[in-house]
Amino acid sequence: MVRPALAAGRALAVLDYFAAHPEQSYTLSELSDALDINLASLLSVLQALTDAGYLARHPRRKTYGLGMSVVAVGHAALTRHRVVDRARGELRSLAAASGAQYVVSAVAGDSIVILAVEGRGRAPDVWAGMRLPLLPPVGQVFLAWSGAGSGEIRRWLDRTSVGAPLTGHLDTAMAVVRERGWSANRDTLARRALGEALAQLADAPRSEELRSHVAQLVVSLGDDYELLTVEPGERYRLTTLSAPVFDQHGAVALALTATGLPEIDGVRVRELAGQLTVVAGVLGAEIGGRPPVLSAG
Length: 297
What we know:
The chain has eleven helices and ten strands. It is α+β, with helices and mostly antiparallel strands. It has two domains: about 70 residues, Orthogonal Bundle (Arc Repressor Mutant, subunit A); about 210 residues, Beta-Lactamase (2-Layer Sandwich), CATH 3.30.450.40. It has a six-stranded antiparallel β-sheet with strand order 5-4-3-9-8-6. The chain has a two-stranded antiparallel ribbon with strand order 1-2. Strand 8 and strand 9 form a beta hairpin. The two termini are about 30 Å apart.
């Protein structure tokens, strides 16, 4: 196994931090504290990124912010992944009609990365550039079509010490997600606490204490996280409502998510879910996507 270069990892940590705080500027000391990288090592990384134009250093304040080279990389990425820009346009229309907030996200390693946010929901706690830990039960919309016993699901479960009860519930929940084609997650006290902890983690991404706290909160979401049945006459408070966009290999390339929703009844849940799945299907077709064919076993 190839060992990652330490300097490269530090550079990525810096860029990820600025991606989550695009309008902010920070001193060397502030970045060192936030990223838990010693001053000498961090200075060399910041110098290299500044020389290449990925960061810009204020001449008087001695602070660092995003540089112009990132714009070029962003445009190049959107040229290659035009579906993200198309998704933004479609979700902007849904947001204007519903008053909710809509999010485009993708999996990157052991995280879910927020790629774009459209509209304004109630008390939104997500933003473009934010990273969420891909820990059970978070991320079911990305994992549900992977197939029972797949290595991808096994790695997902192994990232935390889930017990048999939670694992059994996840099997049931992901089967429901596959059958109906979308995922709905309840708004609970544990989920609200998780949102607050994630906001804190964005400011101190290397904090082991915060990362441990987030992991505990994620697992505490438990078997009440996925809304398994939707009754027309019942009212629900949801934190997210998500649909997958499949790529040409049958993998989930993106998730389209409504968040910041008010309390709604079951009819409205299904209506919003239907809108999301239609948009997801259109976007998937544009990139030659297709849902995977899973064996009965």
